[in-house]
Write a structure and sequence with these properties.
This protein has 218 residues and is mostly helical. 69% of the residues lie in helices and 8% in strands.
Length: 218
């Protein structure tokens, strides 16, 4: 005779393990212990001191009617349908989350693209400013060089002017002998041609004399 465990009863007849245990308890507490001359319940001792229960399959086949199994099957089908619905909703939720993630990634890529374009513009602008700064620095150095050259020329001419002025002052400081004039005698004065007299201002004459002197110093 074939015996099955409570776990096998649950899987074979499509009932829960709690239903299988209740079936065993009902048989244990009833007056029915033998079916067709064979014990319905069989116990196998375990090392722990407890027993593992087995039930006669032929008796179970005769006692567990379709009405007992059908509701469980319907319940199982109903549970499976609920699970499918839950799985479908979960799948839809995951798909929606994936769409949002994809949208976020696209937005991030677009923002990153704009950022790169802005960064390139900033780099180009900085390079342009650097080139302009280098050009302005070069022009400034040229101007400074010209200023230094003009300062050198001015200083040189100032030195020459001081030398010329000192020379002129020295020539004017020579002592002159005072002439003795006989006011009782009238000397004949040679007639002067006024057309030959220079009317050029003294300052211009001195400037020309200075420039002529500069030419002799070259």
């Amino acid at each position: 005779m074939e015996y099955i465990s409570l776990e096998e009863l649950s899987s074979t007849y499509g009932v829960s393990i709690s239903t299988a245990r209740r079936t065993y308890k009902t048989l244990r507490d009833s007056n029915v212990s033998v079916f067709e001359g064979v014990d319905i319940i069989k116990k196998q001792p375990l090392p722990t001191g407890k027993f593992k229960v087995f039930l006669l399959k032929k008796y179970l086949d005769s006692q567990l009617s379709k009405s007992t199994v059908q509701p469980t099957t319907q319940s199982t089908v109903h549970s499976t349908s609920q699970v499918d619905q839950l799985n479908s909703k979960a799948l839809e939720l995951l798909e929606e989350q994936l769409r949002k993630k994809d949208q976020q990634i696209e937005e991030y890529q677009e923002n990153f693209k704009h950022f790169q374009e802005l960064e390139n513009k900033i780099i180009d602008h900085v390079e342009s400013l650097r080139a302009e700064l280098r050009e302005q620095t070069y022009l400034l150095e040229q101007k400074n060089t010209e200023i230094r050259q003009l300062q050198g020329i001015a200083q040189h001419r100032q030195t020459l002017l001081e030398q010329y002025t000192a020379k002129q002052n020295k020539s004017q400081e020579k002592p002159q002998k005072q002439a003795d004039y006989n006011y009782t005698e009238v000397e004949e004065v040679e007639e002067v041609d006024l057309s030959q007299v220079s009317t050029e201002p003294k300052e211009q004459k001195e400037s020309k004399d200075f420039m002529a002197w500069l030419n002799t110093m070259k």
